[in-house]
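Support request from a user on the community tier.

User writes: "When I paste my structure tokens into the form, the page sometimes reloads and wipes my input. The last time it worked, I copied everything first. Here is what I submitted, just in case something in the input itself triggers the reload:"
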């Protein structure tokens, strides 16, 4: 019996086995109905049967064998919807893959006894069947991953917002404990630590919220107003000093620094860069931030001396979750993460129409250069 005809005429038999297998995928399947366990199974099998019989030229067969066939995955197919719903009901990616492995085995095991002899047509059908199963799996895996990412980023956004209130309380407590005459030397030390930790955590929460926004499809919003880049840099320096009281920061300014900027956003950018510079500086080296204005642009450089960042890291340093060994590329059990700060800094900079670059060498240190074209006409 032709494989495609067997599938369409034995769908119920195949689905019984698929349902039985899906029931073993605990804990997600524990309380699912038979209908839910068979989710989109009928339409997936019907599509597989249709693809087995689809006309295919010799050229297309050759391209498939060499991995040159165009991507034909369908994000709206039954298999794609199956991937989304399996993620929503708590299945893991491995469980999703195992479902298709079970379907493949069930179909072939039930079909083989129906054959009296092998032939070229049977071999072709098996090959086309495997291709169709692989395509369905790819469509399910794609939508499963997309839904998992969306769910994760929504959770991060909610978590970030929920953390803001307790962090505000920590900041107020730290500020109160370091006020003159409030307590002893001991409470002053504790207050300083609380305020530093709150500042560090607040920066992390801000980065988390901005990251979640970009991953959920939102654009980085900016509101431009006339502002002094020197004042923005000073505010960022104050933030970084609170998080790194043992680090010496220095601000240098020159030229015309007035233009239309989103001050809070850019304060976040430079606080991120200063925090990274303080984290990776060597010994007691000073971290400098220099703002320079000319008729066409405002450029800000954040510079520190410390371990050289390897070229391979520089290529991906603005990607989220990049890590750098504190031993500058040497093997280390303790890897310091750049986290989301540099990714968010790039997004904010690009939203201003600007660019951000980094260079690292033994002679010049590590220098982040941020350039913003001026929006106001030159007088």
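"...and here is what came back when it finally went through:"
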């Amino acid at each position: 019996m032709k494989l495609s005809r067997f599938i369409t005429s034995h769908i119920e038999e195949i689905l019984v086995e698929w349902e039985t297998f899906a029931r073993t995928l605990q804990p997600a399947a524990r309380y699912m109905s038979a209908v839910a366990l068979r989710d989109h199974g009928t339409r997936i099998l019907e599509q597989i049967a249709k693809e087995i019989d689809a006309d295919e030229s010799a050229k297309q067969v050759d391209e498939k064998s060499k991995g040159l066939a165009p991507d034909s995955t369908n994000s709206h197919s039954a298999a794609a919807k199956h991937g989304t719903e399996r993620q929503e009901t708590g299945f893991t990616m491995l469980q999703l893959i195992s479902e298709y492995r079970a379907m493949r085995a069930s179909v072939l095991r039930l079909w083989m006894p129906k054959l009296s002899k092998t032939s070229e047509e049977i071999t072709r059908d098996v090959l086309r069947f495997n291709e169709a199963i692989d395509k369905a799996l790819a469509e399910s895996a794609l939508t499963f991953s997309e839904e998992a990412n969306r769910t994760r980023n929504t959770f991060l956004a909610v978590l970030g917002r929920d953390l803001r209130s307790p962090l505000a309380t920590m900041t107020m407590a730290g500020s109160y404990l370091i006020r003159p005459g409030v307590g002893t030397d001991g409470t002053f030390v504790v207050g300083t630590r609380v305020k530093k930790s709150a500042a560090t955590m607040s920066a992390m929460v801000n980065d988390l919220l901005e990251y979640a926004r970009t991953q959920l499809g939102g654009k980085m919003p900016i509101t431009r107003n006339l502002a002094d880049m020197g004042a923005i840099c000073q505010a960022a320096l104050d933030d970084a000093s609170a998080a790194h009281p043992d680090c010496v920061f220095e601000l240098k300014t020159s030229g015309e620094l007035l233009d239309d900027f989103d001050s809070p956003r850019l304060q976040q950018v430079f606080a991120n860069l200063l925090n990274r510079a303080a984290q990776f500086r060597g010994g007691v080296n000073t971290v400098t931030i220099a703002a320079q204005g000319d008729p066409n642009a405002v450029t800000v450089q954040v510079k520190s001396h410390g371990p050289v960042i390897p070229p391979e890291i520089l290529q991906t340093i603005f990607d989220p979750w990049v890590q750098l060994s504190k031993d500058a590329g040497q093997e280390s059990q303790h890897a310091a993460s750049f986290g989301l700060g540099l990714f968010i800094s790039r997004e904010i900079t690009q939203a201003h129409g600007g660019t951000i670059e980094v260079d690292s060498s033994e002679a010049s240190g590590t220098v982040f250069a941020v350039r913003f074209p001026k929006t106001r006409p030159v007088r």
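Agent notes: The reload is a front-end session timeout and is unrelated to the input. The first strand starts at residue 225 and ends at 228. The longest helix spans residues 120-177. Escalated to web team.
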